[in-house]
Automatic annotation (TrEMBL):
Domain Quinate/shikimate 5-dehydrogenase/glutamyl-tRNA reductase: residue ranges: 116-188
UniProt catalytic activity: shikimate + NADP(+) = 3-dehydroshikimate + NADPH + H(+)
EC assignment: 1.1.1.25
Name used for this protein in its record: Shikimate dehydrogenase (NADP(+))
Species of the source: Marinomonas algarum
Pfam families registered for this protein in UniProt: SDH_C (PF18317), Shikimate_DH (PF01488), Shikimate_dh_N (PF08501)
Residues given in the record as NADP(+) binding sites: 127-131, 151-156, 210, 233
Segments crossing the lipid bilayer: none
InterPro entries: Aminoacid_DH-like_N_sf (IPR046346), NAD(P)-bd_dom_sf (IPR036291), SDH_C (IPR041121), Shikimate_DH (IPR011342), Shikimate_DH-bd_N (IPR013708), Shikimate_DH_fam (IPR022893), Shikm_DH/Glu-tRNA_Rdtase (IPR006151)
Subunit architecture: Homodimer.
Family statement drawn from the similarity comment of this UniProt entry: Belongs to the shikimate dehydrogenase family.
Amino acid sequence: MDQYAVVGNPIAHSKSPSIHAYFATQTQQSLTYSTLLGDEVGFEQQVRDFFQQGGKGLNVTVPFKERAYAMCDILSQRAKQAGAVNTLLLSEKGELFGDNTDGIGMVRDITDNYQRTLKNKRVLILGAGGAVRGVLEPILSASPASVTIANRTVEKAQGLADHFDCLASSFDALEGTFDIIINGTSASLSGNLPPLKDELIGDQTWCYDMMYGIERTVFLQWAHERGADGADGLGMLVGQAAEAFYLWRQVRPNTASLVKEMRQQMRVA
Ligand code: ATR
């Protein structure tokens, strides 16, 4: 049976094995998908060994996405732009090919599952770290009217804005309302929010949090209190997995039913 795995550290609580098992059943593909505890010292050798032993594909997660990027022979355009790789496979010639499906997973979640278009919209992105860098290319490919990156450390937002040809701002200097606000800061992991002005939210504003949880995230709570609807990043997690599955198997699974099921499981757990 074809073998796949996710490599990261920590890895025990990864949801990827159950997501891919669900996709495999749904699309009637015969495969196994396991976890691999990433080795800080020997990560590259671990990856090579996995493929040497016949492994077909790897997902890469924290903290190895940049190292995976650095060791690839071939990179997709979106992986190049992200500077990070979350999906690995071997080409027909045996070269290591790296892609990044995080951004497209998020964009498809927004457009397919939530029926929101990014086209011609004023988009605000909060944060300028690795997570945001990973999603910028697919967001820009969806032809928004403008993309503004706001970050606590403005220089980091400016660096990304220069590279991706969009706008940078501090939180203070943001002006006007936005159609779509995407939270990509890691602040909400610890229950914090950047200082966001109420005026950012207008009648049409819709919010997306790259984080997810059982309860509404602090960012989505902030939006909700100001009358804006939104969604968390559970669908992004499932979406990036679906795109990886598609790369490996050339079959694109349906994500909506799994997101619904996972949401229910999170509530009863
Ligand atoms: P990730 O891989 O999750 O993107 P990262 O590269 O460390 O992690 O980036 C974290 C992002 O969250 C950064 O944009 C960071 O802002 P700074 O660049 O100013 O550090 C942002 N962030 C983290 N904690 C924050 C907080 N309490 N308030 C505002 N922004 C925060």
